[in-house]
Design a protein that fits this description.
Strand content: 5-15%
Structural class: alpha/beta
Strand order of the largest sheet: 1-2-3-5-7
CATH topology of the largest domain: Trna Endonuclease, Chain: A, domain 1
Number of domains: 3
Length: 319
């Protein structure tokens, strides 16, 4: 997202709003203590030849005297914005979960759509940084971090019903420039055949409207609100399963294991493995552990996939 022009105070509020609300409160306390110490005028008599130093100290103390209240106030405003955004994200997720997801997604503004996508990734264990901006779409909208790896997300709201290969290619270029492990392009619509073909063998995941709706329902089902009623249900002892029941359960488990489904981002390895059911991963030549597909970030083969050890960085074996 391209940011519009903002004043210094607005930039401080925007920056703090990207943090958790409790971090904004802590930052307000820390800045107050810091500027309060700087606001203390120098003690002792002024000696000859120290006029310049005394003037500098007096200037710093004067500025700090104002900043010790002004900066913490801006931090508290940023914390309030962060708290309100958090409530709004949860409300958006709950409303989509309880209603027709497709209709709810189509009726959203671009900003609400990005907040919803960010909250869905946050519920999957990612640390989410919202880039924000003054216009809908364009550039990287979300930055995800998980297990010391970075992923970039671009959101296309409902007006862009069919996302073409240009958007996906642009994100892939930004991934290579920033050294990101993987990326996501999320839309409430669909993708062209060219876009789907482009991501083949690349660590870019395309999430269309139906897939996004499924993921939102999955993460929404794990919210505290949806499990409150479950906590009130009294459990009763169950009978010991018979031999026939055990056999049936084993058969069902084996069938589920061999069934291939569309995995959500949090169900994939942190390194965004692209291994499919038809592709058996080799073993690491160094430690004999299983290997996963990774993407080269730098060097002459930047952007190309290769086999890397799943125990990275403990083991750096490659094929």
């Amino acid at each position: 997202m391209a940011r519009g022009g903002r004043s210094g105070a607005g930039s401080v509020i925007d920056g703090v709003a990207l943090l958790p609300w409790w971090a904004g409160i802590g930052l307000a306390l820390a800045t107050h203590v810091l500027f309060d110490r700087l606001a203390t005028p120098p003690a002792g008599p002024m000696q000859a030849g120290q006029m310049g130093v005394f003037a500098q100290h007096a200037l710093v103390a004067g500025v700090a005297g104002v900043a010790r209240w002004g900066v913490p106030s801006l931090c508290l405003l940023g914390a309030l914005v962060s708290f309100l955004r958090r409530r709004k994200r949860r409300a958006l997720l709950g409303s989509v979960t309880r209603s027709d997801a497709a209709l709810a997604l189509e009726g959203m503004s671009w900003r609400d759509f990005e907040l919803l996508v960010g909250e869905s990734f946050r519920r999957q264990g990612y640390q989410v940084v919202e880039q924000g901006g003054a216009r809908a779409d364009g550039g990287v909208d979300l930055i995800l971090r998980k297990d010391h790896e970075t992923f970039l997300v671009q959101c296309k709201h409902w007006k862009a019903f069919k996302v073409g290969v240009g958007v996906v290619r642009e994100l892939f270029g930004v991934m290579a420039a920033r050294g990101a492990t993987g990326g996501f392009v999320v839309t409430s619509g669909s993708f062209t055949a060219e876009a789907k073909a482009f991501v083949d063998g690349r660590n870019v995941t395309l999430v269309d409207g139906p897939a996004l709706a499924r993921r939102i329902r999955e993460v929404g089902a794990r919210t505290p609100e949806s499990t409150t009623g479950m906590a009130r249900v009294k459990t009763t002892p169950t009978a010991e399963p018979t031999q026939d029941t055990r056999a049936t359960m084993s058969t069902a488990k084996a069938t589920a294991t061999t069934t291939t489904t569309m995995a959500a981002p949090h169900e994939r390895p942190a390194a965004m493995a692209t291994t499919t059911a038809a592709e058996t991963p080799p073993t690491c030549p160094t430690c004999q552990s299983a290997m996963v597909r990774r993407m080269a970030r730098t060097g002459p083969r930047a952007g190309a996939s290769f086999w890397g050890c799943s125990r990275f960085p403990s083991c750096r074996g490659t094929r």
